[in-house]
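Hi support team,

I'm opening this ticket because the web form for multi-chain structure prediction keeps timing out on my end. I have pasted the exact lines I submitted so you can reproduce it. The total is 322 residues across two entries, so I didn't expect it to be a heavy job. Is there a limit I'm missing, or should I split the entries? Thanks in advance, R.K.
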Amino acid sequence: MKFLKYLLVGIVFGIVLVKSEAVSWYRIYEMFRFQSFHMYGIIGTAIASGIIFLQLSKRSHLKSLNGAEIFVPKKERGFTRYIVGGTIFGFGWALIGACPGPMYVLLGTGIYSMLIAIAAAIIGTFIYGVLKDKLPH
Amino acid sequence: MELILNPWPWYVSGPLIALVMALLLYFGKNFGVSSNLRTMCAIGGAGKYSNFFKMNWRDYSWNLVVVLGAIIGGFIAVQFLSNDSGTNLSSTTISELEALGFSNAGQTLLPNELFNMDAVLSLKGLSLLIIGGLLVGFGTRYAGGCTSGHAITGLSSLQRPSLIAVIGFFIGGLVMANFLFPIIF
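Hello R.K., no limit was hit. The queue was backed up. Here is the completed structure from your submission:
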């Protein structure tokens, strides 16, 4: 039962990503060619709403279900890993038009070829884990 | 009903994505889909090859449940909450893609030229899916997050590392779509 709420949030996430067309390869292409405001509108309003939520929850000391105050883990300081890793991610995002969330959502919509991209993404993560200590961060 | 069956406008979708983040934070978790890729490596025994995967994956199993929900959500959205309206792309995009070899842009959810069975069974199509997946999986972990973790959660919490990562996402995406696509397709 404790997993039910995660399942429901996942379902909402999947429905929103399809209905928003954020899972669309075409929309990602359009975004990176600056030919439509659509994706910028989605990401922009998501961030704006997120900022409002986090600021309000900080001010009202909103507590999560486990009793602690709502808390977003801080990313480590750094530059190289973010710019280089981010750029590599961006290459893949534009190429297959899907980041990790949409890959799974698209699988649910019946695009079974996404299984290949998902398997490759798992292998890509594995390669990072093996090379981690040799990479500049 | 038409309002639900048609594609949702950006100003409805964006806040709903923030709601997903807010709910996960309220549950005491975090919104970061790509973490599940690491969890799957750990489940598959990758801890034998790198300490990076030596983790108690059961602590992260909630994230796999979110992903399972996302798959179900995708199914529900196309089966019960959609009509045949297609994607309302800009006319520039449609003609540009036509020139690149993608016909009928926007009429299917994804381009058949990349994702249907014929594409998967061709060397080029298969290679692109594999290379794209590898880049996403490697890049997201190197950068410590993907669109959900950095662009949505990281920027919402005003974190500088996430801003750098998102700038990276766009450098990569812009180079791919603007300079590499004409070579690849």
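A quick check on our side: Chain A has six helices and no strands. Let us know if the file doesn't open in your viewer.
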